[in-house]
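Protein modeling request. Please complete all fields; requests missing the sequence field cannot be processed.
Requester role: graduate student
Desired output: 3D structure, token encoding
Chains: 1
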Amino acid sequence: MIPFCNAPPVQLAVLNPGGNDRDQSFPDGAATPDAPVPHTPLNYHAYAACTRGTFHRDPARILPTQREILLVLRRDLKHCLKTLRALKSESDTRRIAVSLKESGMHQAAHLLSNPANLTLFRAICTEADGCISSTPDLAGIYRAAGARNVAFIPTPYPVDSPAWNFTLPLPERAGIFIGTREWTIPSRNHAAALLLASSLGAPVTVINEDGHSGRKRLQSAAIPNLTIIEGRLRYPDYLRIIARHRIVLQLDRSAVPGQVAGDALLCGVPCIGGDGAIDRLAHPETCGISRDPAELREIAATLLKDDKALTHIIHQSRCLAQTHLSFPAIAQELARYFIDPEQSAETKGIQTELLL
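Delivered output (356 residues):
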């Protein structure tokens, strides 16, 4: 494993063409949670941060010396294809991989349901040097679209950095934090998660980003001892709220990268019920794969009252995250991918099979 204090052999340039996020460099990796940076090192920014690389919305800002580029595919696939071709025409020594920005299965299905988008997606996958999938579920779709050198590489979390450890002692924790918040996406199963939580008799916390309509829906669920956090929070403040709970609960079946599960890792809190990539990698004993709501309820009930069981799960998740999701671990995977993509794709393909 590459030590965090050393510069990784690949400083990745992540390009989100025409996106809203400002250009950003990550010379200090994850830095600190309260550092005044344009964007926290999450999701695709985290791929750049773990390699001490850069994030861009304008391809002209990528330095000529940056040979490894991850092109994030936005909804405007026509613009993405144009950008890919322009980058490839500028230099034949660059390696350009692509990856869908919205990587849940429902998001990919929505994007590719448009015939024009499907044609563009196939062209992009065929012309790129490879594809990096942030979930194991999308890897086969990239391959079916004609992509070479497809590798599943999960989005990293700075679990190796003490500054990002939000864990609180067990006596300072209580209740359930609901990991989902999207009522209108059926695969999120947000209402079902709320009902399951209410049946456990513990305090429940949920974030409402839908204003009056969301608050009305929450009130209609008639959940006793419910705390509603209104609006969006700064990421460190959001983590501090999660850390005050014994468990995070969700029933998400969207096959997403798993940001909620990653947030829970930084807080030392078990994440129950999700099926995202990080859920599977770091929370194997509590994730929703092959477990019905009754079994998940039993797991949640145990962790709400049993300190020994809770401590075991927290320790296991932390160890797994250090191995599979830390900044040094993913920096190493990205370096292996861009230096020897065929070998990396083969190795990650084996790991993908284990996760499915």
